[in-house]
């Protein structure tokens, strides 16, 4: 048995088959167990990055807070109206919609299809992208019609002393 | 020839658990259960020393001669 892989099947008379390989390629029980243990190590190492990002999220490093930015005064925004603003940087255009007396929603209004600016159509109570007629639900930001498949990234809004502030950008969910 | 498959079976079971835990880590991460993610990642890491321990304990079990022994003659 132990010599099974070490036999030369025919008489040979050349200069290349005269190397005795000594079973070096044989996968025995021990070698197989070594492979299994090594594979366990690979799995252990491969989960480390997931643990690291999870720990980062747990410590709250992923939820970055931007300096509060004033969007508008409450008295300037009537129910059903919208205001354009920029948040968090001056290149990220966003839109604030007052859905009811106390309900404000805000989204970064670059359409998730090809980044055209989405605007609020008061009569239809919908956010519409003019480029390809994508539509978004105003209360959730989810796409309801047209080419976009992903929701608009939401912006968290806070009302303090009759002034509306943008606080942070919600997690982008693909 | 005497064989001992206990180690092989145990290690295969550990590898199976590794696969399951890795899958759970990824899923729980996307479900945003970060505590559970850390728990499964920790378990996955812990399985490796266990596997090494089983390997060390079992590698000379069974009747087959070791590599060095086999090639002495």
Report on this model:
- Chain A: Residues 69-166 form the Rieske domain.
- Chain A: This is Rieske domain-containing protein.
- Chain A: It holds the Pfam family Rieske.
- The complex is a heterodimer of chains A (174) and B (73).
- Helix content of chain A is 17%, strand content 28%.
- With 174 residues, chain A is an alpha+beta fold.
- Chain A has a 6-stranded antiparallel beta sheet, with no helix packed on it.
- The model of chain A has no long low-confidence stretch (mean pLDDT 84).
- With 73 residues, chain B is mostly helical.
- Chain B has one domain.
- Chain B is 74% helix and 0% strand.
- The longest helix of chain B has 25 residues, at 6-30.
- The two termini of chain B are 19 Å apart.
- The chains are: A alpha+beta (174), B mainly alpha (73).
Give me the secondary-structure topology:
The complex is a heterodimer of chains A (174) and B (73).
Chain A: H1 29-58, E1 69-73, E2 82-86, E3 93-98, E4 104-108, E5 119-121, E6 126-129, E7 134-136, E8 143-145, E9 154-160, E10 163-169
Antiparallel strand pairs in A: 1-10, 2-3, 3-4, 4-9, 5-6, 6-7, 7-8, 9-10
Chain B: H1 6-30, H2 34-58, H3 67-70
Transmembrane segments (chain B): 38-55
Keywords (chain B): Membrane, Transmembrane, Transmembrane helix
Protein name (chain A): Rieske domain-containing protein
